[in-house]
Amino acid sequence: MNHSLQALRSRLDRFGVLLSGLCLLHCLAGVFLVGLLGVGGGVLLDPAIHRIGLVLALTVGATTIGLGALRHGHVLPLAVGGTGLALMAAAVVTGHGTQEAVLTIGGVVLVATAHLINMRRGC
Question: Is residue 2 over pLDDT 80?
């Protein structure tokens, strides 16, 4: 495989981990700031942020994890990442509340894990 393409996929996997972390931070900040302090609801709970985040996660995740699975032939990152992306999509359609937070947190942890597995496989 072309070294520059491999380097790009590695950077995208790292970006996927960063994106997952930011999503997790956003979710936890939303629960804390809105739920406990009653502030920031207009910005943190804006549905557009969640839709944009899901589109980014789907694009980066499907591309890097999918290409990695094709390259190394291991389905574990694909299964873990696909499950995480499905949980994130379910969270977006669920609406705000505890169920959304649990689905989002579970989803981003699985997607980040899939990216890390992909990077360890050398893709």
Answer: no
pLDDT tens, 29-41? 766 666 655 555 5
Annotate the chain with DSSP letters as a single string: --HHHHHHHHHHHHHHHHHHHHHHHHHHHHIIIIIIT---HHHHT-HHHHHHHHHHHHHHHHHHHHHHHHHH---HHHHHHHHHHHHHHHHHHH-SSHHHHHHHHHHHHHHHHHHHHHHHTT-
Spatial distance between the Cα atoms of 55 and 52, rounded to a whole number of angstroms: 5
pTM to 2 decimal places: 0.71
